[in-house]
Prior knowledge:
Structural class: alpha/beta
CATH superfamily of the largest domain: Glycoside hydrolase/deacetylase
Number of helices: 12
Number of domains: 2
Strand content: 15-25%
Mean pLDDT: 79
Order of helices and strands: HHEEEEEEEHEHEHEHEHHEHEEHEHEH
Largest sheet: 9 strands, parallel
Amino acid sequence: MGNDIHRPLGQNRAPARGQRARTKASWIPAATAVLVIAAIAGGAGWVALSGARIDQSPSVSAALQPEETPTAPSESSGAAIADPGLETSVLGPDPAVPGGLLNQHGESGAVITATPDGEGGEINKITPITRPNNRPVLLTPPGRVGQDPRLAHLPDPAVVETTDAGRLPVRGVNGERAFDIYARPWSGARGARVTIIVGGLGLSQTGTQRAIAILPEEITLAFAANGNSLQRWMQEARRQGHEILLQVPFEPFDYPANDPGPGTLTIGAGAEANLHALHKAMARITNYTGITNFMGGRFLSDPTALEPVMRDLAGRGLMFVDDGTSARSLTDRFAKTLAIPFAASDMVLDAKQERGYILSKLDDLERTARRNGAAVGVASAFDVSVDAIATWAEEAKARGIEIVSASAVAEDPER
C-alpha cells in the first residue's frame, strides 16, 4: 500500500474505457475554436494590409450599364395590379467595379396580385421579384426630392431611359423629374440668395480638376457638352456636393465666323437634326438638373427652331437656364407656356479676366440679391475666375448671403 493510505478514496482507480475516450477527445472543440478565431483574425489582417475595400473607388468611373429587367414570377388567378415600377429600367453596376450594387427604383421590388375574398373585398399577395443573379440592390424610394450624398454620383433609374443615343433623362412613371432628384437642397430661408454658375467644365482637364477642387460645393457647375471625360468629372463634382448643368452650344448671330464648337444646334439644320444633336449631347453625362446655353443668340430668338428643343426638355423633366447674353432670347416665354422650370442670369461675372473686375461684379450680384431676394451670375472656369469666386463666396456667407444652386432660384410651374 505504501503512501496510498493518504490518497482520497477512488483516486487510485484506472478510468473506465468510455471515460478515457471522452477525456482524450475533449480537446477537439477547443482546438477548433482556436483555429476559427485565428482564421478570422488572419483574414482581417490581410484585408487591412492589402488595402482591399468594398466601396467604389472615386477614380473609377461609375457609369452604369443597362441590365436585364427582372422577371416577375407567375401570378395566380385573379386581377393583377400592374406595378409601375416594373416598367422602370434597372441599371446594373459598372463592370469595372467588382461587387458594384444594382440601383433600383423603390416601387419595383415586388409584384402585387389581388384575389377576391368572396365577401366584396380582396386579398393582396406580395411576391418579391427575381433579382438578376440574386444580387443585392439599392432601392430608391418613390416621390423623393434630392439624392443621398453617398449616391449623388449615380444616375437614378427612375429618371433615366436607354435610347439609341445613349442614356437620356426622362420623367419617371410617377412623375419624378431629374430637376428634383438631382437638385441640391437649400435652407428655404427668406434672406438674400445668390446663384453662381461656372461653365466650360470638361474643356480643360487641369482647369476642370482645379475648379472642382477649389470652388465651394454651393457653386453650380456647367459641363460643356463637347468636353472630354465628362462622366468622370461629373461623378467627382457630384461627390463634392455640386449641382450640375449641361452646357449645350447654340448658333450665335455671327455663325460660322463665331463657332461654338462641335454639336452646335443651328437654325438651318432643322428640327430632326437638332433633336438628334441635343440627345447626343444629353447622353454625354447624367445627373444634371437641366441645360444651359453656350452662345445661341440667333437660335434662341428663333421660335421655329427653339420650340422643338423646349418641348423635348419639358417632356424630360429638365429646367432651362438662360445665360442672359441674348436680349432677344425667347426661352422664358416658351418655359412659361410649356411649364418648364426656368432661371435666367442677371449678369456675366468675368467679361474681363481681371480679379478686381470679377470681385466688383460679384459685389454687384450681392446688391441685386439683397434688392430682389435672389440673383444669378455666370462665369467661365478660368483660373482667375475660380479663385475670385471661391474667395468671395466664403466672405459672402459670413455676411449672411446664402449661396444656392440654380434649381433653388428657378421658377417652377409645378411647385
